[in-house]
Specification:
The chain has 355 residues and is an alpha/beta fold. The protein has 9 helices and 14 strands. It comes from Aequorivita soesokkakensis.
């Protein structure tokens, strides 16, 4: 049976990427050696790292604009601390839109003053705050573009004269933005790019070197830039799979092409959530809904067993909501085909007809 993988992360990857990466584990570049047993400083793998970094900048339109792309370890959770270590001298401004931004705030407070410019916590993070003021004397402004747990997404970003830092872990490469508005972007690979184990960091070099504290080498962006993401042994397999995924995206036509498909998927599912009397969305305002993670619930818990039986029979995987929210969450990352969303909609409609 074909599986329809709505997992929030680690998530679905293109079948062609899975096949190529599986082949490379057995025989990389016809070397009769495995990708995961060769030196990370070998000519073949250095070419992988260079290509992955170049493709990331190319997709974001940031080539030759003073940015560097890095593939680091520790996930976005380490970037919560690392960004503050490199950029926070006295005060930073944070927008709190959910669990991950809340965790970023917690880490930054270890290093300086944090101003929470706005939060949607009072409504269990079911909307994106707007019309807030960002202190002009802050060292940087931090936001989270998409909130996987609660199903919200920033559809616009504030204008500010200070550096803007963004955690794009769950919607990187999914839509067109003016990425030059951001001085630092970071994203765990396991949502739209590759398997867990590596994190993309895209940073504008001119924002570095402005804090007075000593920065440990492993946390210092400058060190990683100088060593071209090879300061320590990188996560070889996740970087390789990320490179393949970025090549796949380029062959499709880039971000502009995948955005059209992502919009179709989101429209199809949200229209059904709004139309079907058995379901309700977690995010009431359409302008705040995530196109990557649609969160919803049954209005009648008595239908739960029947619905989940239908889900299983249809080959749908990974639909359960985060444990802190409950309900259901359909994660529609780049590699999820429109066909899979249609299968979920068909199940929702079948439940309505049988209720």
């Amino acid at each position: 049976m074909k599986k329809h993988n709505f997992s929030a992360g680690p998530c679905i990857l293109p079948q062609s990427v899975l096949q190529k990466s599986a082949d490379a584990v057995l025989n990389f570049n016809n070397s009769n050696l495995s990708l995961i047993e060769i030196s990370h400083r070998s000519k073949d793998f250095v070419a992988v790292m260079d290509n992955a970094r170049d493709l990331a900048l190319e997709h974001l339109g940031l080539q030759n604009k003073g940015y560097q792309a890095l593939f680091l370890q520790g996930g976005a959770s380490l970037q919560f601390l690392m960004a503050a270590f490199n950029l926070l001298e006295k005060k930073a401004a944070y927008l709190n839109t959910g669990t991950w931004s809340n965790n970023a705030i917690k880490e930054a407070k270890l290093l300086g003053e944090v101003v929470e410019v706005a939060t949607s916590k009072s409504d269990n993070f079911n909307f994106i705050p707007k019309n807030y003021n960002i202190p002009a004397d802050a060292d940087y402004f931090h936001c989270t573009s998409n909130n996987t747990i609660f199903g919200t997404q920033m559809q616009s970003f504030p204008e500010t004269q200070i550096p803007m830092v963004c955690d794009m872990s769950s919607d990187i490469f999914s839509r067109q933005l003016d990425f030059s508005k951001f001085s630092l972007i970071y994203a765990g690979a396991q949502k739209n790019m590759g398997p867990a184990g590596t994190t993309l960091v895209v940073i504008k070099e001119d924002i570095l070197g402005k804090v007075s504290r000593a920065i440990p080498s492993m946390l210092n962006y400058k060190v990683h830039i100088e060593k071209e993401s090879m300061f320590n042994t990188p996560a070889v397999f996740p970087v390789y799979v990320s490179m393949l995924t970025l090549e796949w995206l380029k062959d499709l036509g880039g971000i502009s092409a995948i955005e059209k498909v992502n919009n179709q998927k989101a429209e199809l599912l949200y229209n059904e959530i709004d139309r079907n009397p058995l379901f309700e969305g977690f995010v009431p305002k359409k302008e705040d809904r995530s196109k990557m993670n649609a969160t919803f619930n049954l209005k009648n818990d008595e239908l739960k067993a029947t619905f989940e039986d239908h889900i299983k029979q249809a080959g749908i995987n990974g639909l359960n909501g985060h444990r802190s929210v409950g309900g259901y969450r359909a994660s529609m990352y780049n590699a999820l085909p429109l066909e899979s969303v249609q299968v979920l909609v068909d199940v929702m409609q079948a439940l309505e007809k049988g209720a």
